[in-house]
Amino acid sequence: MFTLLEKAVIWMALLRLISGSIEVFAAYLMVKFNEVDKAVIINSSLAFVGPLILIFTTTIGVIGMSDKLSFGKFFWILLGILLIIYGVKK
Fold first, then answer.
1. How far apart are CA 61 and CA 21, in angstroms?
2. Looking at residue 26, what is its pLDDT?
3. Per-residue pLDDT tens over the stretch 18-72
4. How many Cβ atoms from other residues are within 10 Å of residue 74's Cβ?
5. Confidence of residue 2 (pLDDT cuts 50, 70, 90)
6. Rounded-to-integer distance, Cα 73 and Cα 55, Å
7. Three-state SS across 11-63?
8. pLDDT digits (tens, 9 = 90+) for 62-84
9. Which residue, of 6, 21, 33, 82, has the greatest Cβ tally within 10 A?
10. What does each C-alpha distance from 81 to 12, 57, 66 come to in angstroms?
11. CA distance 39 to 41
């Protein structure tokens, strides 16, 4: 009847809620300022926040699963995160 949630899952969901709130607030600011140049600046700042949230949530998830993962799988996860960051920056 009552399900206990894992701490890692709660933190990951909380970070995603914060990220979504930042996105909604950015949209509000764009409408409030009603200027294209300011909207572009606000949108560009979101490009910094998104990857950070991705890295933090992935890190929390991997730490939560650390007892179930081998060293080799940690390597592939780290490589995948680095490739995502590389792809976003280019």
1. 21
2. 96
3. 999 999 999 999 999 999 999 999 999 898 888 889 889 988 998 888 888 888 8
4. 13
5. low
6. 17
7. HHHHHHHHHHHHHHHHHHHHHHHCCHHHHHHHHHHHHHHHHHHHHHHHHHHHH
8. 888 888 888 888 889 889 888 88
9. 33
10. 16, 11, 16
11. 5
Q: Kindly report the CA angle at 56 between 72 and 39, in degrees rounded to 5?
A: 135
Query: Do residues 10 and 55 touch, judged by C-beta distance below 8 A?
Result: no
Least Cα distance to 48 among 22, 10, 28, 78 occurs for: 22
Residue with tokens 């399900």: 3
The model scores a pTM over 0.85: no
Token reading at 31: 């409408």
